[in-house]
Design goal:
The chain is α/β, with parallel strands linked by helices. It has four domains: 106 residues, GTPase HflX, N-terminal domain (Rossmann fold, 3-Layer(aba) Sandwich); 87 residues, no CATH class; 167 residues, P-loop containing nucleotide triphosphate hydrolases (Rossmann fold, 3-Layer(aba) Sandwich), CATH 3.40.50.300; 63 residues, Alpha-Beta Plaits. 40% of the residues lie in helices and 22% in strands. The protein contains 16 helices and 14 strands. The strands form three sheets. Strands 6-7-5-8-9-10 form a six-stranded mixed sheet, sandwiched between helices. It has a four-stranded parallel sheet with strand order 2-1-3-4, sandwiched between helices. Helix 1 runs parallel beside helix 4 and helix 4 packs antiparallel against helix 5.
């Protein structure tokens, strides 16, 4: 039966989607997102099945009757693969495959497959391969001898490693060899990722003085579209899940005298495999190091509240739960249900509404970001020697100069300046700084 799972890719395969939902839960459509995920992976969805179950069956998640029914549909629709929205144990997958007689995948494996297809940079490829080894390996047996040629070589891509799954060995002894090879490969991947991390940290260090903003949010919320609209980034935008896997950072000037760095990141999804979050920590490092997060929310999506929850969970998991965050309601141009928008506005009274596509509401975003950047305005009286022109130009560029007077070789300037710019002003060594009003 193992040959069914020779490859976990679902590109162009005919897929039946299944969501097994406990009776105790509400009757929402759990298959909408799984459909989008399967199609993003390139599968053709031929049938969808929402099965109500009383309890989770330990051996095969669903009952025998339901499994037989699934087998019948798999034959009728000539399916190549059955994809469950639930996470299944390796034993459950084996049992189900015996009955259904086609390959069975679970939600996490599907997500990992999408990531493997999309990963472009070396870092993303290594991260996906590591996540796949860590998630899939304990769930497969006797399938890893292909790693012999790549272990330690550092040349395998994530997709390459997955494509090889299914190479069968002769038994227990092979299993032991496979285990060693996998562990060797995991160690090598971690080493390579470690050196990329160090480079990343140096890059982040270089940006220390800058105000850093990171776009976070559910996949397909419009993060990349917003980055493109605000800067000249030309990042890939697609109406599919996980269009972005790599971080992109651009300079952005939301107001004169306000220059920030804006980063786009990988989107989040419900039940994101834990291994993936772990290995994408470096990519998400942009979020960890940001001074401000913009949480982009697709308010046209019917699942918007649970999407917000999932994003918050992942943010907490990567240690960003307490970071200053501005909620941004996007796709306001296609909102049909005004009631939903009003409900969200009560939940997040400070959120901004905009459309990254039409540009509606962007001025307010610029204002709100600039205010966060300044951290509140101070009224200052600054004395500086006339020979130190830098102080005067800094205040003119980054603050609002109200009055300038010259006396005894000094210049006395009344100016408004953002609280966050005060350290920068101090570095220019004016003679005195007096805070007149905070
Ligand atoms: N109508 C409308 N569509 C939008 C808006 N913003 C983005 N979109 C569309 O939403 C889809 C997803 O946009 P992306 O910018 O790729 O979304 P993302 O958040 O970067 O998604 P991932 O990279 O997959 O996490 C695309 O088809 C966009 O054209 C908007 O304000 N209004
Ligand atoms: Mg994107």
């Amino acid at each position: 039966m193992e040959e069914l799972r020779q490859t976990l890719r679902v590109r162009k395969e005919r897929a039946i989607l299944v969501a097994a939902v406990l009776h105790s839960r509400g009757g929402r459509d759990d298959l909408a997102e799984l459909t989008a995920l399967a199609e993003s992976a390139g599968a053709v969805v031929v049938d969808r099945l929402q099965q109500r179950i009383r309890t989770i069956h330990p051996a095969r998640y669903i009952g025998k009757g339901k499994a037989d029914q699934l087998a019948g549909r798999a034959r009728r629709f000539k399916a190549d693969v059955v994809i469950f929205d639930n996470d299944l144990s390796p034993a459950q997958i084996r049992e189900l495959e015996k009955i259904v007689e086609v390959k069975v995948l679970d939600r996490s494996e599907l997500i990992l497959d999408i990531f493997a297809t999309r990963a472009k940079t070396k870092q993303a490829r290594l991260q996906v391969e590591l996540a796949q080894l860590e998630y899939t390996y304990p769930r497969l047996t006797r399938m890893w001898s292909h790693l012999d040629s790549v272990a330690g070589a550092g040349g395998a891509t994530a997709a390459g490693a997955v494509g090889g799954i299914g190479t069968r060995g002769p038994g227990e002894q092979q299993l032991e060899i496979d285990r060693r090879l996998v562990n060797k490969r995991i160690t090598e991947l971690k080493r390579q990722l470690g050196s990329i991390d160090k480079r990343k940290i140096r890059e982040i260090d270089r940006r220390k003085g800058m105000f850093k903003i990171c776009l976070v949010g559910y996949t397909n919320a419009g993060k990349s579209t917003l980055l493109n609209t605000l800067t000249d980034a030309a990042v890939l935008v697609e109406d599919r899940l996980f269009a972005t896997l790599d971080t992109r950072t651009k300079k952005w000037t939301p107001a004169s005298g306000v220059e920030v760095l804006l980063s786009d990141t990988v989107g989040f999804v419900k039940k994101l495999p834990h291994q993936l979050v772990a290995s994408f920590k470096a990519t998400l490092e942009e979020a960890v190091n940001a001074d401000l997060l913009l949480h982009i929310i697709d308010v046209s999506n019917t699942e918007v509240t649970s999407q917000i929850e999932s994003v918050k969970e992942v943010l907490a998991e990567i240690g960003c739960g307490e970071k200053p965050t501005l909620e941004v309601f996007n796709k306001i141009d296609v909102v049909r249900k005004i009631g939903r928008l009003e409900m969200l506005q009560t939940l997040f009274p400070d959120a901004l509404s905009l459309s990254a596509r039409t540009g509606f509401g962007l001025e307010q975003l610029c204002e709100a970001v600039s205010a966060k950047y300044r951290g509140g305005e101070l009224l200052l009286q600054v004395r500086s020697s006339q020979s130190n022109g830098k102080v005067q130009s800094f205040l003119r560029a980054y603050g609002r100069v109200l009055k300038e007077r010259y006396c005894d070789g000094s210049v006395l300037i009344d100016a408004k300046l953002g609280r966050n710019q005060l350290p920068e002003l101090k570095r220019l060594h004016p003679e005195t700084i007096e805070i007149v009003e905070a």
